Amino acid sequence: MGLKIEINNIPLEVEKGTTILQAARKVGINIPTLCYLEGLQNPGSCRVCVVEVEGANALQPACVTEVNEGMKIRTNNKRVRNARKIILELLLSSHPWECNTCDRNQSCELQTLAEEYGIREVRFQSTQEKLPLDESTPGIVRDPNKCILCRRCVAVCQEIQKVGTLGPRYRGFHTVISPGQVDLLGDAVCVQCGQCAAVCPVGAISERDDTEKVWEALEDPQKYVIVQTAPAIRAALGECFNLPPGTLVKGRMVAALRRLGFDKVFDTNFGADLTIVEEGHELLSRLKKKLVDEDKTVKLPMFTSCSPGWINYMENFYPELRDNVSTCKSPQQMFGAVAKTYFADEIGIRKEDMVVVSIMPCTAKKFECNRPEMVDSGVQDVDYVLTTRELGKMIKQAGLDFVNLPEEEMDAPLGISTGAADIFANTGGVMEAALRTVYEIVTGKELPFEKLHVTPVQGLEGVKEAELTIKETLPDWKFLEGVTLKVAVAHGLGNANKIVESILKGEREYHFIEIMACPGGCIGGGGQPRLTTDEVRKARIQAIYKEDEGRKLRKSHENPALKELYNEFLGQPLGEKSHQLLHTHYFDKKNKKEKEKVKV
Amino acid sequence: MATNIQETELTQEEKFQQLMKFIESNREKKGFLIPALHKAQEIFGYLPAEVREFVAEQMNIPVSTVMGVVTFYSFFRMNPVGKHNITVCMGTACYVRGAKKIVEAVENTLGIKPGETTEDRMFSLSIQRCLGACGLAPAIMIDHEVHGRMTPQKLEQVLELYK
Ligand code: SF4
Ligand code: SF4
Ligand code: SF4
Ligand code: FES
Question: How many alpha carbons lie under 13 Å from residue B160 in its C-beta half-sphere?
């Protein structure tokens, strides 16, 4: 039995446990929110969502108040509007008025509400001291002066990511959000995932802005500047230009990048295909060593390594798993190392004159490209990483009418890729891509799933599992005949934590595990257009699968440009050259001395 | 106050052991963080960074949560208290008669700000609203003794008595 209620005289029936906010959204009534975040424990602290409930003296916060039978609610009358105005004025009274120079200008939830509620003056004054910016990490910049203490970042960092870097300090007027014991993020354990930046309603947490450096490189005639775009960008960049989430804009994105002046427009997808081939062979080699050679030093399950937020998490919290993590570099770093060797040689450009720019959905990639060991080409393999949001800004600065750009193709050779690479963007995608290749190497046959989709590992469930029994193996792989491969997938570090703990406690056994640090995978990365809700995640995920299904080639090992790379340059997967350029090693960052040595 | 006598005898390692035992027996209890921090402060006298980190580790919670609680309640101290505690009165009477200058004088002479302790652990500085000695404004209190009609010069002489 539902509860009968009325909102602004509109009768409706909702289930028990529904909040006023949820009920109002059902009938198309928007109630403003600042601290509320779908799917999290809500503090109900900002009070901007207050509504009038008949019979109650005080106004009630809609985001945490559940409806009762017969409740009559007013979301928009003078009393409510006035209360919201005062709340906004109070927030603005201790807020720097720097909209024109703020990263969030025109995409700020506070600014938007101030505009919607017609705030024309702020009658309160505060004399708060200006706090310094925190620019101590490559990925994230914090401006505590703009913080409105909504605590979304705290909730995400603690509840979703289970990292717990951020927390409040002091009380009342003096409250600040800080990284634990220290003042700078760089001195705390922060995995740089950027999920805090993705949910901050104002300009208090953002990615480090590297667009100026990229403009400079583009304008430098001495430099040959190439760009790679992560698979997740093509399903999200459109949102920067008010296209609906899940609009595929690959062709227009390529056109825009060309017009920005990049010498070549390439694809991280190429790196992703390369990753699958290397990682697939690594998995098979681990299985062989374990099952046939009974080599005790070989570690299973093997974890994927393409998410730098996960790598940071592993190194800081579970360094004992270092040997379980694939030695494969992430697709962006594989791309960089190949671009500055193979491709630079091919076109006769000195690697010192080549600049590799990555467009990533991710802030941790900014950290990753600055890791001191990522220099296997002889110079820094990837020079700059821009988030989807930063690319959106550059396109606007360039005055391009993005929505009406023509569709263009990526350049060869490093822009050629398969559908397996597209799905790297989604949680479960790396697993699916790897299985497509591994199964075929071992049996000579296609992966026995409808449309090649490993459906059990798709979707937004936090931890997903699948089993695959290998039959009719080719002669080289007889030892895998009848073996049931057990795989698992987790997205969001809180879910990663669950899997890792269950393995360490011996409750679960797997052969291969995919981990992505961000909820939903890269499509939900910390550098994506805001705000990434589950609805937005689903739309982007669908778009990516559509992109994959529309391709002729959907398995990484079929990528013709990759075959050429192996023939002309790398030799064999896991060969000597691969080891030198495409594989890496990890550090024990629980050990403070070791951490200091490799500090980024 | 048996613990006070013990305190001087325990090595740093023994103190951590003692705290660990206390936390171990109660770790699963809800809302146990505050008692754990109280115990820690009782053992160490204050809550330095290593102790806050230790509590977080033992209780398997982020250090940011510990920090949130420690800074929220005024009875937790993050700095050691000195042998002598200087309290400067900032009540109205003292304020108008130059209490601010007295605070500055302490800051300059001892190099500590309110809430801090000198490196030799001799003096801590704190501020209070009113000591109830308005007739002697500006007044300070060192340990339990009130010193009135302070001037920066007089302050130095008074401090000498405690060195
Ligand atoms: S955070 Fe929002 S309101 Fe504040 S300065 Fe930036 S744009 Fe303006
Ligand atoms: S980047 Fe990730 S780990 Fe770091 S503070 Fe933000 S949410 Fe927490
Ligand atoms: S930094 Fe942003 S998300 Fe975090 S509390 Fe402040 S305003 Fe909210
Ligand atoms: S959104 Fe409801 S209290 Fe903040």
Answer: 6
